[in-house]
């Protein structure tokens, strides 16, 4: 009889007991069928879901980054309108990406620390690889933002410079024309001034927001740099890592053995038991004394 | 580049088509092979999240069937047994088996029989059976290397084992390069002859189908020589960076272990010296000690400038630039500390052991100088109490190799003096060396004093004076390479195997030294390759020697010879 165990989808909340999985495996083997479906019953541990989630976040962040680049380019082009829409899109995208990265990073830090030694090795390595990806993404985002910022600043100065020039020329021509005239600004110049002021205020706001997301990203990068492997050092060598695992496991085993021994021979336990027994005996004697007297 | 890229290529092919989370299973040989060409971060990029040794995978009962196992092992019987046990009660979901050399049919049958659950998805041979320490230098890390000094009758099984391992290693190199060579060997060495003949048998008869590659006009050349033809090079003290580190501290698989040398901070206890990953090392590995000091000083100055500018963070832009450059800054910091630590340690050792003094005499013994001055110098140095035992032993050995025939009485004096001074000296070691590698046993003209042309050349060099008295020695390999390039390698000294013959000059040459290579020789090969003479050399050996290892092999061989009844 064929025992076909379907590929079970692991839901994050359900904890499929491990022994059940192993029993299923045994059952499959006994039916003597070399069916490969029967052996994918072994479920991956729960943290694999976290790592899948983070990987999906990274993918999404990448897609949004390419959209952000397009939005940057569009906003830098000269346009007739105010360009407010573009600003909103850029702000929204930047915020979303930073949020994704921050969430992934928090998730990464929160990886569970229990599990068997081998499982923890796999988990640590997965953590490292995701940390490297996240760090690369953050650096990429910051670089794109800094180029955008630079081009913004250039544009800003350009605009201010042009306006000031116009104003200067305007006032000069005014003086030349009007001998007794008003030495202040006339209507036209006032409105131009107001416009450029508004423009400057807007740009300043944008710059402030970009700088703020910069700082957040810098923080993320600093946190991540602890998890990432330095290339070219001894930590990046495969044989060094295997050696370390072996020694760590051995050390842990020795410690466990020592702890077990000291606990077993604990004179404390014996003393405590004797005292408790004596307490009971005394209590019984006391009660007897009360009854007999 | 060619050896490193061949090995990397194989590993890439193993990992690329398998999707999902993987575990890489290696044995104690293949872990060296993989570690020198592939890094942990690259493995992580390929989704390999666990690396284990084949001997310990059966020890744990934990089942991880969401992982796919990629096994890269040498085709030896212990590994086959481990695999059999594992396949009987598998821990991982799928098994992809790769072997580093040619599998025997019986081994394939055993594996097929034990795969009852059909979890083995593929089985292939990827011929990366050598440790590619440098682009043109490979080693086989053979533990029982000393066996090459013993005649076959003393320990036939170990001797055969050594030959087999060497033949397998050489075969893997040529399979990786996809060529089949013409083979020549050193006539006076039995083991070289045996290795050459067995390699020829493997390549031309037993597995001729496997080795039947596209024939080019000029076949490559395999030259098998014996370490004992040039015993001087491993005994000398070295002054070029890579060779010096190996001689004074010790490099194993491109790693340097500083833990025995004193107290260091945690990340400087073991360091990596790889020309692929460290550009400063790549440009300085063949420079001599004085130049290295200057270059490191430049490096430290550069680094100090960068860190000073990093402390001056005023605007947001500065901050942004700092965070951008932080990973590179950190890497540079680690690199600078590593090189500074190494050079400091080596300077300390040079000071303690008075190596400048010793090395001057060593170089004179090896290159030129008359007998009388040499004897006086060695005697004086032996009287010097500050010298360590190994240095004294080396001086006497060099004197012995050079002047064994001219003044045997002097040599006897020196040996007696040595024996009286140090308790650890094993008596008869110098004589054992002469029996192994003395003038009668060597085929080449090691000291350039046999034929008139060489004598004249030496005199001319002596008159001209040398740039640096500490690096004047050229390993004998240099002359061999020159002869190959000019097509002047003598048939009597280096005969062909069977009816091979080579017209003209070869374009690719693999030189294998049975008994071990040295970093001085690999430097020679690298410089020769850089000079674009039309021939590309690759050097390989059973181990990478320094004087300590060479002397250890010698002592071990002497001990076995003494305790064995069957030696004449």
TrEMBL record, chain A:
Pfam families listed in its UniProt record: SNARE (PF05739)
Bilayer-spanning residue ranges: 267-288
Gene3D superfamilies membership: 1.20.58.70
Domain T-SNARE coiled-coil homology, first and last residues per copy: 197-259
Keyword terms: Coiled coil, Membrane, Protein transport, Transmembrane, Transmembrane helix, Transport
InterPro entries listed in its UniProt record: SNARE, Syntaxin, Syntaxin_N, T_SNARE_dom
Coiled-coil stretches noted in the UniProt entry, renumbered to this chain: 83-110
Family (UniProt): Belongs to the syntaxin family.
Name of this protein: Syntaxin-43 isoform X4
Source organism of the structure: Ziziphus jujuba
Lineage: Eukaryota, Viridiplantae, Streptophyta, Embryophyta, Tracheophyta
Gene (UniProt): LOC107426296
UniProtKB/TrEMBL annotation, chain B:
InterPro entries to which the protein is assigned, alphabetical: Sec-1-like_dom1 (IPR043154), Sec-1-like_dom3a (IPR043127), Sec1-like (IPR001619), Sec1-like_dom2 (IPR027482), Sec1-like_sf (IPR036045)
SUPFAM superfamilies assigned to the protein according to its UniProt record, in alphabetical order: Sec1/munc18-like (SM) proteins
Pfam families: Sec1
Family listed: Belongs to the STXBP/unc-18/SEC1 family.
Designated name of the protein: Vacuolar protein sorting-associated protein 45 homolog isoform X2
Gene: LOC107421618
């Amino acid at each position: 009889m064929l025992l076909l165990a379907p590929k079970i989808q692991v839901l994050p909340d359900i904890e499929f007991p491990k022994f059940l999985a192993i029993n299923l495996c045994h059952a499959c083997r006994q039916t003597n069928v070399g069916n490969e479906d029967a052996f994918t019953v072994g479920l991956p541990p729960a943290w694999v879901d976290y790592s899948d989630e983070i990987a999906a976040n990274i993918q999404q962040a990448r897609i949004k980054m390419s959209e952000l680049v397009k939005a940057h380019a569009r906003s830098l082009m000269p346009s007739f309108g105010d360009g407010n829409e573009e600003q909103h899109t850029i702000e929204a995208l930047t915020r979303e990406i930073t949020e994704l990265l921050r969430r992934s990073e928090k998730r990464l830090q929160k990886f569970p620390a229990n599990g068997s030694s081998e499982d923890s090795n796999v988990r640590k390595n997965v953590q490292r690889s995701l940390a490297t990806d996240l760090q690369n993404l953050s650096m990429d985002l910051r670089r794109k933002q800094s180029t955008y910022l630079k081009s913004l600043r250039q544009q800003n100065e350009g605009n201010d410079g042009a306006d000031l020039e116009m104003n200067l020329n305007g006032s000069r021509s005014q003086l030349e024309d009007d001998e007794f005239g008003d030495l202040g600004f006339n209507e036209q110049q006032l409105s131009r001034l107001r416009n450029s002021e508004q423009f400057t205020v807007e740009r300043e706001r944008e710059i402030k927001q970009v700088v703020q997301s910069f700082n957040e990203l810098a923080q993320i990068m600093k946190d991540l740099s602890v998890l990432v492997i330095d290339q070219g050092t001894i930590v990046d060598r495969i044989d060094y890592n295997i050696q370390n695992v072996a020694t760590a496991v051995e050390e842990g085993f020795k410690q466990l053995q020592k702890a077990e021994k000291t606990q077993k021979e604990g004179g404390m336990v014996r003393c405590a038991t004797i005292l408790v027994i004596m307490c009971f005996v005394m209590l019984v004697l006391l009660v007897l004394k009360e009854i007999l007297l | 580049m060619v050896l490193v890229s061949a090995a990397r290529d194989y590993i890439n092919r193993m990992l690329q088509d398998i999707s999902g989370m993987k575990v890489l299973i290696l044995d104690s040989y293949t872990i060296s092979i993989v570690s020198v060409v592939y890094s942990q971060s690259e493995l992580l990029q390929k989704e390999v999240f666990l690396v284990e040794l084949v001997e310990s995978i059966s020890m744990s009962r934990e089942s991880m069937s969401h992982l796919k196992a990629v096994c890269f092992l040498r085709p030896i019987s212990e590994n086959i047994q481990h695999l059999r046990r594992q396949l009987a009660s598998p821990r991982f979901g799928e098994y992809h088996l790769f072997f580093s050399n040619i599998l025997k049919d019986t081994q394939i049958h055993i594996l097929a029989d034990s795969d009852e659950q059909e979890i083995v998805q593929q089985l292939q041979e990827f011929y990366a059976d050598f440790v590619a320490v440098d682009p043109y230098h490979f080693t086989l890390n053979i533990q029982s290397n000393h066996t090459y000094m013993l005649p076959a009758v003393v320990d036939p099984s170990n001797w055969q084992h050594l030959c087999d391992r060497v033949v397998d290693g050489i075969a893997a190199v040529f399979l990786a390069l996809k060529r089949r060579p013409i083979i020549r060997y050193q006539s006076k060495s039995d083991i070289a002859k045996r290795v050459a003949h067995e390699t020829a048998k493997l390549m031309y008869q037993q597995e001729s189908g496997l080795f039947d590659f596209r024939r080019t006009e000029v076949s490559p050349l395999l030259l098998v020589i014996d370490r004992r033809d040039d015993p001087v090079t491993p005994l000398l003290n070295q002054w070029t960076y890579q060779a010096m580190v190996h001689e004074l501290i010790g490099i194993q698989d491109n790693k340097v272990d500083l833990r025995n040398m004193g107290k260091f901070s945690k990340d400087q206890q073991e360091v990596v010296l790889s020309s692929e990953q460290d550009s400063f090392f790549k440009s300085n590995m063949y420079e001599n000690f004085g130049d290295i000091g200057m270059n490191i000083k430049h490096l430290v100055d550069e680094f100090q400038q960068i860190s000073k500018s990093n402390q001056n963070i005023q605007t947001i832009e500065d901050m942004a630039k700092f965070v951008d450059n932080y990973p590179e800054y950190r890497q540079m910091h680690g690199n600078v500390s590593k090189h500074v630590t190494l050079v400091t340690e080596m300077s300390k050792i040079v000071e303690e052991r008075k190596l400048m003094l010793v090395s001057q005499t060593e170089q004179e013994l090896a290159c030129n100088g008359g007998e009388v001055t040499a004897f006086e110098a060695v005697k004086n140095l032996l009287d010097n109490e500050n010298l360590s035992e190994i240095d004294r032993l080396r001086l006497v050995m060099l004197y012995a190799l050079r002047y064994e025939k001219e003044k045997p009485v002097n040599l006897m004096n020196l040996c007696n003096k040595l024996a009286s001074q140090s308790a650890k000296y094993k008596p008869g070691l110098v004589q054992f060396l002469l029996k192994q590698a003395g003038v009668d046993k060597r085929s080449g003209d090691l000291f350039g004093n046999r034929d008139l042309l060489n004598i004249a050349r030496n005199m001319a060099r002596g008159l001209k004076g040398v740039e640096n008295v500490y690096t004047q020695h050229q390993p004998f390999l240099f002359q061999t390479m020159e002869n190959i390039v000019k097509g002047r390698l003598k048939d009597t000294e280096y005969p062909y195997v069977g009816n091979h013959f080579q017209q003209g000059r070869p374009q690719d040459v693999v030189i294998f030294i049975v008994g071990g290579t040295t970093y001085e020789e690999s430097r020679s090969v690298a410089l020769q390759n850089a000079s674009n003479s039309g021939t590309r050399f690759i050097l390989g050996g059973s181990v990478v020697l320094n004087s300590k290892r060479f002397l250890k092999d010698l002592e071990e061989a002497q001990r076995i010879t003494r305790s064995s009844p069957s030696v004449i």
